[in-house]
Design brief:
The complex is a heterodimer.
Chain A lengths: L2 H4 L17 H34 L18 H6 L3 H34 L4 H13 L2 H12 L5 H7 L14 E2 L17 E2 L2 H25 L3 H9 L4 H29 L3 H6 L11 H8 L4 H32 L1
Antiparallel strand pairs in A: 1-2
Chain B lengths: L1 H25 L14 E5 L5 H17 L4 E4 L8 H12 L6 E4 L3 H8 L7 H7 L7 H6 L1 E2 L2 E2 L2 E7 L2 E4 L1 H6 L9 H14 L3 E3 L7 H15 L1 H6 L10 H15 L10 H9 L3 E6 L2 H8 L9 E4 L6 E10 L8 H11 L2 H11 L15 H12 L1 E4 L9 H17 L2 H15 L1
Parallel strand pairs in B: 1-2, 1-3, 8-9, 11-12
Antiparallel strand pairs in B: 3-11, 4-5, 6-11, 7-9, 7-10
Classes of the chains: A mainly alpha, B alpha/beta.
Chain lengths: ~325, ~425
């Protein structure tokens, strides 16, 4: 740091960025700097994914006694689990959970951010209030939400005192909203596809917790919108809605994409909140792949691994297009 | 200034992250086992962490310390999930080749998965030396074996099929539950309770084992002890009319239970029963200790009958300990531990704290509670069968399939679907 004092005084105004010359020496140095993290991520991510794929195709049942022979017929474990009522319920639940959760959390975050950005008093207070739940663990909030949605206590006490005779059963309700089919229970399709009512309180709790995160992303996005754009629109006579629709929202699009990707994996991997709030539920109405994996870890290692791979594929279906898009953009630039 | 600062921050973050990774990994290493090597140490794992359980475990620890003075005992208990978390932690240690000196295990089915993996030591020589098999009911001794060899020792016996009742609710409805009247008698009594305006059954199956245990009690009562055991050797099918009847009974009892059963846990359900919210609650006798802890008085706030059925069936849920076959850190101390557990005096003291029954029939039970004395009588005279809900009657995979089938049934009440998945499991998993 002492060298900086020897430099000539900086010119006034914004300092031009100094370009580090890109040559063989610097790129080799970069390679050295990246090598450890590359090695670690290769070993602990990609090699382990490979091992998990192999286990899911093997005969390894009991976690503590490895059996690495490949299962015959090939991929039999996958063929086995797709027929299970529990598996089908899990896939339905995780898809429904992800869609509703993303909509609630992202919309909630956007509204909270717009509100905070425009209030003149108590900005810091509101920001903290919205962001605080994000700092808590799902287990902690899950226990509190479990009490709130317990059918015999919690919010139902209030409903009963208001004269509602039969308040909802919340996480114990086995109703499927908008059911698309009526399975006999012994055919291939064993679950009713639709929106499980029992899942809604859990989605609400998860969205409540992550609204603060989405809000923080949007606040950063809002801060980066140049004042000039809004002023120009004002001069042109655009009303509040038009400014939001044509100036603000388009410029918040990158924040939305980031929120979407980061919240998506929270939704797909959800485990602790469900365990604390309801467990698997009657007929697996609130079961998710994470609980499935945990339950089968000691009794069927191959099945747990297969479910983990399916979960990974679910994530990749959405993440890969995002990465490809980012990569293409970078190359264009 | 800006760039070096950034570098420094990122270095600090990297260092912190790698520190977390390193400490995270080392958390799996057994405390104290790497430094030891001497025989003056013993590390045991279990899932006994609640008040009464921890007290009971301390009886055993004090006992082994008495028989080998100077021994330091490391109690590596892991709480939660009815033992599931402890078993996950144990599995990780077994895979890493650094087992504890002894670990808690349920006999029969659960024991078999460790035997199949070659992880537990054969204790047959100790059994012959101590002549232990002659000191306990035949069924209990058999549950400690796999293929004719003993791999574990039983410290206590729990009963899974006890119907806990609330005397004042029953007398208000003018109902008496007679075990000899069978399941039909039970259901008609429960309907009478419903007519009196009280919820007949308290159930808490947020953890599905509570439902799985209720259904297994019904199947046992309808099919009988012999057929129950034959379900797991594939000599009797889940497709049998008695099993179908039991499922119909189960459906009827579910409709008589509290509507929020999937939202509450087994212990909350037991307390609700003692509070008078309903008339009966089926649970293992670990509920007894839970109710005492909650300040409920036996005979007054709650009473009990064995689950109604044709014969007196004792649904056995066992506690015991095994020692590792390989890489055992302190072999001598582990064998002393096993011998200590089989001391009748220790078994009595343990039972007094834990609420279970001594496995050894020569243990003195005169000082135990009225419930325990009654259960001990049933154990000696009744038909003893292993519980499936606790992965004892069959291996972990079959037990998990059963638990899943019960969960599915709780949502759909579809008897055919239940039978289809269980008969399929009988064909492929036994």
């Amino acid at each position: 740091m002492t060298t900086s004092t020897a430099l000539p005084p900086a010119p006034a105004g914004p300092r031009p960025k100094k370009q580090v010359p890109h040559n063989v020496k610097t790129s080799r140095r970069a390679a050295w700097i990246f090598a450890p993290s590359l090695l670690v991520s290769f070993l602990f991510v990609y090699v382990f994914i490979g091992i998990t794929v192999y286990i899911s195709l093997s005969n390894w049942k009991i976690g503590t006694s490895p059996n690495l022979a490949l299962r015959q017929p090939f991929g039999g474990t996958y063929a086995e689990i797709v027929q299970e009522q529990r598996f089908q319920a899990d896939i339905r639940n995780v898809v429904i959970f992800t869609i509703i959760f993303l909509v609630l959390a992202i919309l909630g975050g956007l509204i909270a951010a717009l509100f905070i950005h425009h209030v003149s008093v108590g900005k810091g207070l509101f920001r903290t209030v919205f962001l605080l739940p994000y700092a808590l663990s799902f287990i902690v909030t899950g226990v509190a939400w479990r009490w709130i949605f317990a059918p015999s206590t919690g919010v139902n006490e209030i409903l009963r005192s208001m004269g509602i005779e039969n308040p909802p059963g919340w996480t114990t309700d086995t109703t499927i909203l908008g059911a698309l089919n009526d399975p006999s229970g012994t055919d291939f399709l064993k679950v009713q596809f639709g929106i499980p009512v029992a899942l809604l309180p859990i989605i609400f709790a998860a969205a409540w917790q992550l609204v603060g995160f989405a809000m923080a992303m949007y606040l950063a996005g809002l801060a980066s919108i140049p004042e000039e754009h809004l002023e120009a629109a004002n001069v042109d006579g655009a009303n509040v809605w038009q400014r939001l629709r044509y100036i603000v929202l388009p410029q918040l699009w990158p924040s939305t994409i980031t929120c979407f990707v980061l919240l998506l994996h929270v939704a797909l991997k959800i485990f602790d909140l469900v365990v604390a709030m309801s467990g698997s539920g009657p007929g697996f109405v609130t079961d998710v792949p994470g609980i499935y994996i945990y339950n089968y870890l000691t009794s069927r290692y191959d099945k747990a691994s297969a479910m983990a791979i399916i979960l990974l594929l679910l994530t990749l279906v959405v993440i890969v297009p995002y990465l490809v898009r980012g990569y293409r953009k970078e190359r264009k630039a | 200034m800006r760039a070096p600062n950034k570098l420094r921050i990122s270095l600090a973050v990297t260092a912190a992250a790698s520190l977390i990774a390193v400490t995270g990994c080392s958390a799996n290493a057994p405390a104290g086992s790497s430094t030891g090597g001497g025989s003056d140490k013993l590390e045991i794992t279990s899932w006994w962490t609640s008040g009464s359980e921890a007290d009971a475990l301390n009886v055993l620890i004090d006992g082994v310390k008495k028989s080998s003075p100077g021994l330091s005992v490391d109690n590596a208990a892991v709480s939660g999930g009815g033992g599931a978390n402890a078993r996950q932690a144990l599995a990780a240690r077994l895979q890493a080749g650094s087992p504890p000196d002894a670990w808690q295990v349920h006999p029969a089915g659960q024991l078999k998965s460790y035997v199949d993996g070659g992880q537990v030591a054969d204790l047959t020589d100790l059994w012959t030396e101590g002549n232990w098999a002659s000191q306990m009911p035949k069924d209990v001794a058999e549950a400690q074996q796999v293929d004719g060899k003993y791999y574990t020792v039983p410290i206590g016996v729990h009963r899974g099929n006890v119907l806990w009742t609330n005397p004042s609710v029953l007398s208000k409805a003018n109902v008496k539950i007679d075990p000899a009247a069978g399941v039909d008698g039970l259901i008609s009594s429960l309907k009478q309770v419903q007519a009196s305006g009280t919820t007949p059954v308290c159930l808490g199956d947020k953890d599905i084992f509570a439902s799985a245990q209720l259904l297994e009690s019904l199947i046992m009562s309808r099919a009988g002890a012999d057929n129950w055991t034959k379900l797991f050797t594939n000599e009797y099918s889940f497709d049998a009319p008695e099993v179908k009847q039991a499922l119909a009974d189960y459906k009827a009892i579910l409709s008589l239970a509290n509507k929020d059963h999937s939202a509450i846990t087994w212990d909350e359900a037991a307390k609700k029963m003692a509070d008078g919210d309903c008339a009966v609650n089926l649970m293992g006798d670990w509920a007894y200790g839970e109710l005492l802890n909650a300040g409920k008085k036996p005979g007054q706030d709650f009473a009990w009958v064995s689950f109604p059925g044709k014969e007196d069936i004792f649904d056995y849920v066992g506690d015991g300990f095994s020692i590792p076959a390989n890489n055992i850190p302190h072999a001598e101390a582990a064998r002393t531990w096993v011998k200590t557990l089989m001391d009748p005096k220790i078994q009595t003291e343990f039972a007094a704290k834990k609420g279970s029954i001594p496995a050894v029939t020569s243990a003195d039970i005169s000082g135990l509670s009225a419930y325990q004395q009654e259960a001990a009588k049933s154990l000696a005279s009744g038909a003893v069968v292993s519980s499936l809900a606790h992965a004892q009657a069959a291996g972990a995979e079959f037990a998990q399939t059963y638990a899943d089938a019960v969960s599915t049934f709780n949502g759909s009440s579809n008897i055919d679907a239940f039978i289809a998945s269980m008969t399929q499991a009988q064909k492929t998993q036994l």
